[in-house]
């Protein structure tokens, strides 16, 4: 089943999210409009806004409030991507040049700041203190995760626990926040909020684990980024960590050198080491365990097309090619 089919129950809502995104991107500053159009026209899965909508509708919410929250979540996510690409000196995302490659680092960073602050304007509109609290905590955690990842870059001594902490903060926290916002829009109590938070937590971890596998296995034309991007940036992701731990001394030394110096010229040899040590199946298996935990978290949510979509989304994630 493809993603469009899975998200069919919220297709109308997602169109409203797109309309909201385009409306709220407008600025009197021409460069912001230009960069905003460039990044939104690139597409993307829009998983984070979809989670807000699925969680809200699965809990019986019929109002338009989740649409606003979904657009806000996407603005925050997009702002982090703009900043990430500058920090990582990335030149390609979703199959085309990054905003910083086209408009320069200054334009990308400042436009990211605009999106971030616009998201906070949207956040306060409903006047819900709980929403502001969830998002303030999530955005702070994301920033911590980004700094931790920066500290890990080029450090071959990064272990699995440090890696998991980074992806928990950097990726899973926004998934968690989106699901919790859906529960809040539906006026659900703490128990259901926690259930949906847990779903987002495990789905977010699984999503990033699969992303890190795809950096070594994906077709670049399908995934929209070059194979070995993480290695070029010196990021010690789980496939590399596992390969260093379970490979030969020679393989470990090779990977350590590649991480330390961003040796993308050693990509072929590193990929052979990753393959021979079972690092890809190991990482995928961990992603699948978190996907199963995500599904288990939905046990108390009433059956509906939206709950079914959330279950299918967890399964889709572990098998996706991009």
Would you write up a description of this structure?
It comes from Solimonas terrae. One of its GO terms (biological process) is isoprenoid biosynthetic process. Its cofactor is Mg(2+). Belongs to the FPP/GGPP synthase family. This is Octaprenyl diphosphate synthase. The protein is mostly helical and 322 residues long. The protein has one domain: Farnesyl Diphosphate Synthase, CATH 1.10.600. Helices cover 75% and strands 1% of the residues. The chain has 17 helices and two strands. A two-stranded antiparallel sheet has the order 1-2. α4 crosses α9, α4 packs antiparallel against α17 and α9 packs across α10. It starts with a helix and ends with a helix. The model has no long low-confidence stretch (mean pLDDT 92).
Kindly summarize this structure in a few lines:
The protein has one domain (3-317): Orthogonal Bundle (Farnesyl Diphosphate Synthase). The chain is built from 17 helices and 2 strands.
